[in-house]
Structure formats: structure tokens, C-alpha cells
Amino acid sequence: MAGAAFDTGGSAAQNPLTILTLAELRRRTSVKWRMHPPDVLPLWVAEQDAPLAPPVADALRCAIDLGDTGYPHGTAYAEALGDFAARRWGWHDFRADHTTVIPDVMMGIVEVLRLVTDPGDAVVVCPPVYPPFYAFVTHADRQVIEAPLGPDLRLDHAALDEAFGRARARGRRPAFLLCNPHNPTGVVHRRDELETVADLAHRHGLRVISDEIHAPLVLPGAHFTPYLTVAGAEDAFALTSASKAWNLAGLKAALAIAGPRAVADLDRMPEEVSHGPSHLGALAHTAAFRDGEQWLDLLLDGLDRNRTLLATLLAEHLPAVTYHRPEGTYLAWLDCTRLGIATPRPSGEPGVASDMAGPARMFLDRARVALSSGHVFGTGGAGFVRLNFATSPAILTDAVTRMAEAVEGIAQAAPQTPPARPVIAAEVS
Ligand SMILES: Cc1ncc(COP(=O)(O)O)c(C=O)c1O
After folding, report:
1. How far is the CA of 105 from the centre of ligand 1 (A)?
2. CB of 337 closer than 6 A to ligand 1?
3. Pocket test residue of 130, 137, 251 for ligand 1, highest count of atoms within 8 A of CB
């Protein structure tokens, strides 16, 4: 960045989320910082407010200095992920030769869907879930079938059984798109839960595609289980990258990984798909998995502190909002239904990530805090907001304080309603 006058590296043991100031962050030009006017605190899209991990920045700097900006080549990225997966998750039979580099996780999902399903086939998802699961599946000409999460926000195996049955009844080649860990709830699926998924998928004849982009972001108390290490998952696919954990969404390169009985399918991936990832992207993601673990641990520590800080702030300032403490990711799924703010029935499909209605619209208009609106996450999302806490404790505190003042303001404007349950009708803009 021309003229940058700050040290983005921080000290060796510094929480990466406390290095950049708000003024420095506002100089960023990515969607998080430019979608809304500068008086808005952006806690919506999944970008982090940390500087680049030093090993990643060094790898990029080295490539720039050399003019090493040609086409990507080789298996270094997959090997770095394989070593990371063995160290971190005990995944020792990871095979770099069972992977292919793809532009990003969502494009990879579409390409894998093209391998194992046909146009018009059913794809099961578990809402509330990452909105592009709807948009990309639909744009790939497949039909979404919902198997909503249970009231505890975990996978509901009875709902999956029923949805898999419906998907199968349509004939042809259905699939299940798993979010592991789950966005927006931050639930980290346990091995026994995933074994039941594999069993159900087998019984109904569905192929499982596991989106594992948040896998390195598992917080203390939980353990990530790669889907491909689960008994019965041999014909499944996983997709991942360093994009969420090391904030590399702007540096395109991800990996599709085939289970042993899906390798023949992966071999049918068209050659042109490998033209999408960028060489700088592959270098950055490789450096993250190979050399970025110490930085990741500092980040996870900072996220864990923010997870606790958010609980304290909400209990103190916004007791009517229910916080389901996430086990992983840096996303908090906040139940705002007790605020009594209506979400008008959306006119279109879920999936437009920047669409705002209900509580998120109110918090944007009155608190100048941008959150992700729950209704775009599909069934069960209306009345919720998703808050991205990969930010500094100061910004997090400011945001929740502003949100509480907004709720207080509504309560004062309508004194007949109890303070914890103000009722307003928010309009979709
Ligand atoms: C579950 C999930 N999958 C995929 C993505 C997007 O990944 P990519 O930019 O690699 O397509 C995100 C981004 O937040 C995500 O949360």
C-alpha cells in the first residue's frame, strides 16, 4: 500500500486483531470497508481486521520482488495443506495426488456439483446456512432442498433423513452440501454426527460435498473432524483454502479433495478449471498452511477472547439478544427475535448476502453497525443477525454499545412496550 506508515507485523506474540487502528482499516478498499458509508462499523462479510500473517506477506513480497507473477504450477499448496492437516487434525492419509487446485471454494463446489450431479438434480443444504449455498446451487441449475438445523443449531439427522429421501425420490443424482464447520452458527460438527451423515447419505444414495473453509478456525473446546476421515465418506469431496483463517479472499486459490472412491470423478474435472487460481494466490495459501500456524494460534487466542467479550457485552447491554456461543469461525449468530422487529417476507430466494431486512436493517439505520441479515441464510434465519467478531475488542465494544443505544432509543420512542422487547416494523429498503 503506497505511503503506508504503520507496521503491520506487530510484535511476535501480539494479538493480530489489535494491530490495525480503525483509521488504518478504513483505508482498505475491500467490500467490507467500502459497501457502507464511513460512519458505519462493518461487522458483516467474513473478512478479518488483522494485517496479513508475516509469513504470507513475506512470500508475496518475495514473489513481487522476483516478478514471479506467472501461472501456478505444482503440488506445493496441497502438500502444505496435507502437512497442516496431519499436525492439526491427525489426518495422516491425506493424499496430495487426490486434490486439484480450483479458483475458490464456491467455484469448486459448483465444479464438483457438475461432476456428481446433473442439471435439475437436488442439492440438500442445512439452513440457516451461508447464503451463496442457495445462489450458486441455483445458478448451476440445481434445485435446493432444505434440511433445517435443529433447535440446538446442530445437524438434525431426522430432517436430513427426510430431505435425503425427498432428494432421492426425484431420481437421478442428488448431493448434500455440508458446511463443516457451519456458517453462520459456528457449530463444529462432531465425528459421531458426521458418521450419521455418511450413513444416511449411503442409504439414500447422495454424494456429500463438504465445505471446510472454516476448518482452521476452531476455537478452544472444540475439535475439527475432516469429513473425509469419517467412516463411510470414501466417495465424498471436501473443499478448502486458507482464505478465511488467514484472510486471503482476494488471493484466489483453493483445493478440491477427493475421497478414495471419488478420485475417478475428480479426474473428470475439466482442465480449464485449473486456469482460474492465481499464482500469487497459490503462493499465499501455501505459505499460510506451511508457515502460518504460529500466527493462526495468536489469532485463535484473540478470537476466543472476543467470543467471551461479546458474551459479556451482550449480557450487559443487550440482554434480549440470545447469543449461541460459537465453537469455531469468527461468526456469532445472534437471535434478535425478542426485539420484536419484523422481517418482511422476502420477495426472492435466500442467498443475496448483502440484502438487509429486519434487525440488521434497524441496526444499520439506527446504530450505524453493518451486520449480515439473518433472512438471507434461508429457513430459520429471519429475526437473527450474523456478527463478524474478527475485529479489535475496541471496535466490538463500540459496535455492541451502539446497537444497545439503538434498541434503547426505540424503547424510549415507544414507552408502552417493555424496554427489552421494543416493537418496530422495519422496512426493506
Ligand atoms: C462456508 C463458506 N464457504 C465458502 C466461502 C467463500 O469462499 P471462496 O471465497 O473461496 O469462494 C465462505 C466465505 O465466507 C464461507 O463462509
Report:
1. 6
2. no
3. 130
The phi-psi region of residue 387 (left if phi > 0; otherwise alpha if psi is between -120 and 50; otherwise beta) is beta
Looking up cell 433472512 gives 375
- Burial per residue of 259-268, b for 16 or more beta-carbon CB atoms within 10 angstroms, e otherwise: beebbebbee
User: What is the C-alpha to C-alpha distance for residues 289 and 147, in angstroms, rounded to an integer?
Assistant: 33
Ligand 1 center to 362 CA (angstroms): 26
The rounded distance, in Å, linking the Cα atoms of 88 and 99 is: 19
Would you say 377 and 352 are in contact if contact means Cβ atoms under 8 Å apart?
Answer: no
**Phi, psi (degrees; rounded to nearest 5) at 211:** -85, 110
Rounded to whole angstroms, how far apart are CA atoms 330 and 326? 8
How do residues 262-311 score in pLDDT, each as one tens digit? 999 999 999 999 899 999 999 999 999 999 999 999 999 999 999 999 99
The rounded radius of gyration (Å) of the Cα atoms in the chain is 21
- The predicted model scores a pTM of 0.93
Cβ–ligand 1 contact at 254 (below 6 Å): yes
Given a contact cutoff of 8 angstroms between Cβ atoms, the answer to whether 290 and 84 are in contact is yes
Q: What distance in angstroms lies between residue 407's CA and the mean position of ligand 1's atoms?
A: 31
Looking at the DSSP assignment, which residues form a beta bridge with residue 239? 211, 256
Cell numbers for 252, please give them.
484466489
| Total length of the chain | 429
Contact 77, 285 (CB under 8 A): yes
| Helix segments in 40-104, DSSP class H | 54-66, 76-89
Over the chain (429 residues), what is each successive 10-residue block's mean pLDDT? 42 89 98 97 98 98 98 96 98 97 98 97 98 96 97 98 95 94 98 98 98 98 98 98 98 98 97 94 98 98 98 98 97 96 68 78 97 95 97 98 95 64 34
355 lines ligand 1 (CB under 6 A): no
Number of helices and strands (H, E) in the chain? 13, 15
Q: Vertex 199, ends 195 and 204: CA angle to 5°?
A: 145
Q: Alpha carbon of 31 to those of 22, 37, 106: distances in Å?
A: 16, 11, 17
Three-class DSSP category at 356: coil
